[in-house]
Amino acid sequence: MKKLLILTLLVLIALTTGCNKKNVATMIDPYNDTNARIMGLGYRDFEQAASTAVNEMLSSGAVSKPGGGRYVMVVSRVINDTMQNIDTDQLIKKIRIDLLRSGKVVTTTAIGINGAEDPMVAAARKLRKSKEVNQKNVARKGQIVAPDLSLSGKIIQRNHSIDSDTDQIEYFFMLTLTDINTGLAFWEGETPIIKRGDSGTVSW
Fold first, then answer.
1. CA-based nearest residue to 36, from 166, 198, 155
2. Contact 124, 110 (CB under 8 A)
3. Does residue 27 belong to any structural domain of this protein?
4. What is the full DSSP assignment across 133-185?
5. How far is CA 79 from CA 85, 86, 175, 189, in A?
6. Can you list the pairs that 130-135 forms with residues at least 24 positions away whose Cβ atoms lie under 8 Å?
7. Helix %, strand %, coil % of the chain (to 5)
8. How large is the C-alpha radius of gyration of the chain?
9. Is 58 within a domain?
10. What is the domain count for the chain?
């Protein structure tokens, strides 16, 4: 009887401890987070790099189409040359959103360096062969719009030792906007993000 009581108490303690651990998580407001930045690349770094790039594009006039209207942009290759396993789409998506909101640029998802970003564009066109689908509603031939501009880039990382206790990590977001018709770079930008911290801080 005593063993059963002790076993029951141990189970209750374990369950109570497990429940307490579940309440440790804290919600962070990405727009009002005042905590110290990390040495690696975080959401605020991508936000800063994307905002800087878009503001420079807009102020340079590179995305102001003569006669009005919007340029059609396609995303080319953005290379991650850092020590971190990061998704470059996080940067590109923010740039795309800001450019779309500016009314100057729209991005095609039907064309991409590795195929269509949205495979449904091609899949929907296969409905032309279906007898079950009203052909009046099926996408017609020759309707996909070819891109005017191509966005490519590279993110690089350079580590420097300031002293025995301090490291400096430099990130460079390098982007190029190319006129596909002429092959000329309409705009190029480089946004540096520099961080300094304890040498024991992991940056990848």
1. 198
2. no
3. no
4. S-TTSSPPTT-SPPPSEEEEEEEEEEEEE-SSSEEEEEEEEEEEEEETTT--E
5. 11, 10, 10, 15
6. none
7. 30, 30, 40
8. 25
9. yes
10. 1
Residue showing tokens 């063993």: 3
Q: Taking 90 as the threshold, does the pLDDT of residue 20 lie above it?
A: no
SS3 call for 119? coil
Residue bearing the bigger pLDDT, 32 or 63:
63
For residue 74, the domain's CATH number is 3.40.50
Phi and psi at residue 51, to the nearest 5°: -65, -40
Residue 150 near residue 111, CB atoms below 8 Å: no
pTM: 0.75
Q: Which two tokens stand for residue 81?
A: 């040359």
Q: Look at residue 9 and tell me whether its pLDDT is greater than 90.
A: no
How many CB atoms sit inside 10 A of residue 169's CB?
A: 21
Q: Which domain holds residue 48?
A: 39-124+144-204
Residue 134 domain flag: no
Per-residue pLDDT of 73-82, as tens digits, reads 999 999 999 9
Reported as a single tens digit per residue, the pLDDT across 89-124 is: 889 999 999 999 999 999 999 999 888 899 999 999
Calpha distance 125→121 (Å, rounded): 7
Pairwise CA distance, residues 157 & 174, whole Å: 11
Question: Is residue 68 domain-resident?
Answer: yes
Q: What is the spatial distance between Cα 157 and Cα 45, in angstroms, rounded to a whole number?
A: 13
